[in-house]
Amino acid sequence: MSAAPAKPPLIWANALMFALTFAAAVVLVPWYGLRYGFTGWDVGIFLFFLIGSGMAITGGYHRLWAHRTYDAHLAVRIFYLIFGTMALQNSAFVWCSGHRTHHLHVDDVDLDPYSARRGFWFSHIGWMLREYPSGVPDFSNIPDLKKDKLLAFQHRYYVPLAVGLNFGLPILAGVVFHDLWGMLILAGVLRLVWSHHVTFFINSLAHMWGTRPYTEDNTARDNPALAVITYGEGYHNFHHIFAHDYRNGVRWWQWDPTKWLIASLAAVGLTRRLKRTPWFQIQRALLAMQFKRAETQLARMPAARHSHIEQLRARVAHEYETFLAAIADWARVKEQWLEEKRRAVLEQWQQSDLQNRLRDIERALSRQRRRMRLLHAQLA
């Protein structure tokens, strides 16, 4: 019998950091809270640092630098760098390089740095505890980021910056508000542990728990519950098919405070060039999944209902033909509209007519999605 392959060497710095901070949070937070109590300032600074760190990872590391979904003013980028460094999730170079690799090779057990197919523990934290080949940063995929002097500075001096910020800012707050240990425990330790595992849930739970309304080509899921604690990152199925959209929660009612922050900053000129996936492309992805699932449901229906199945199959086929025709019509009209816009020779009413036709086609797809939901109810 062949021996089991040896595990990669342990990364002791990471293992000790995660173990000690977690143990400190579990033991010191309740002990100090019960014995001495936390002040309102302790709680307030804890929340400020926590939200700042979370937004720096989601809005900065993820949506600004990893996917370049918008441009940000220097002041915003400096804020992201300060609190992103404080989040203790490595430099933006390392984080973004790994994340781009994850999107390129999602679910590949050999190439995806935190493949969910290797289990919850591995995708959540295990991939950072050992020297796995898939976790080695490949900076060839971040040529754009390497040109950024701020990011290069952070990467070069990451360790002293991370240590200084994680101790310095809570200590400074503790001195100012006269509760050094309470601030260190709450705004320092608990904030760090909570911030870590909330981010890690996107790599683990968001690939295991939830729905896949846009694509089944990967394990990413949409999960509204996760979105609440991850600043909107829980709509992960949408993100993996439309990664260059600055939004994750694309519906107005979906919880995505990172999206709201970016849009609010755009309103005052601090962010710009926000990238949005055309609504038609989103509708097309949703409908394609509905047709795929309808065919699967039809294939599972008992043969005894043959005549009923054939009627439903005919309806699905008709809807699919309508769907394909709408896509072709939309593409043709869109191309025509863009061509006329480039030439700038149409009268204003002609351009408006083409835009109205595009909107009519998009509304027709929305109505078709409603019809498909009714069909799914009959197939259930």
Could you give the distance between the termini?
49 Å
Structural class: mainly alpha
Radius of gyration: 25 Å
Helix share bin: 55-70%
- Tally of separate helices: 14
Give the SSE map.
Blueprint: H1 12-35, H2 40-66, E1 71-72, H3 74-86, H4 92-104, H5 120-124, H6 149-156, H7 158-176, H8 180-203, H9 224-229, H10 236-241, H11 257-267, E2 271-272, H12 279-300, H13 306-343, H14 348-379
Antiparallel strand pairs: 1-2
Can you give a write-up of this model?
65% of the residues lie in helices and 1% in strands. The protein has 380 residues and is mostly helical. The model has no long low-confidence stretch (mean pLDDT 88).
Jot down its keywords.
380 residues, mainly alpha, 2 domains, two-stranded antiparallel sheet
What's a quick, concise take on this entry?
The chain is mainly α and 380 residues long. It has 14 helices and two strands, in the order ααβαααααααααβααα. A two-stranded antiparallel ribbon has the order 1-2.
